[in-house]
Each structure stands twice: as C-alpha cells, then as structure tokens.
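Comment thread on ticket #2218

A.B. wrote:
> Attaching the input chain for the structure job we discussed in standup.
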Amino acid sequence: MTTESSNYEFGTLEFSPNPLQIEIIKLLKEKKTLTRRDFVKLLRTPRTTIYDNLIKLQNRKLIEKYNRNNGKCGHPFVYWKLMEGK
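C.D. wrote:
> Ran it. Output below, let me know if you need it in another format.
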C-alpha cells in the first residue's frame, strides 16, 4: 500500500481517506467492480477491515454496492463500484 495523501471535497465537508481507502479507490478505478473477497485477496487485509472501510466510503458517497445473481440458489454476489462522476 502507498502512503500517498489525497483529499476529497463534499460540498463544504473535506474528507481525508486513510491509506487503505485510497487503495480501495485505486483498485475500483482500475478494475471497475470488485467483491469484498477480491479486495481481501488483492490487499491482503482482513475481511472485516475491508468491510468497515467500504462502508465508510459508501457513507461518503464515493462508492456504491449492487447485487448480481448468478442464476443459482443462494445469496447473490455483492459488488462494489465507484459512484458515477467520482
């Protein structure tokens, strides 16, 4: 992971993502959509840590999640992607 610093503005609020959140954003820019399992493998970070940071980015309206059913029984896959225009 890199320690590069980035600031994102949201109206009058400013947000400084942590290094993991920066890596998540970079991966989504490169790969377009990923599952939480993909993030765990690529970033070698615990699942819960990835999830906590995905939720923080979602609350900041940087990323969004959506479901894709593969046509089989069971839970659909949950994918994450950057919000349009971000």
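A.B. wrote:
> Thanks. Noting for the ticket: Residues 1 and 23 are 7 Å apart (CA to CA).
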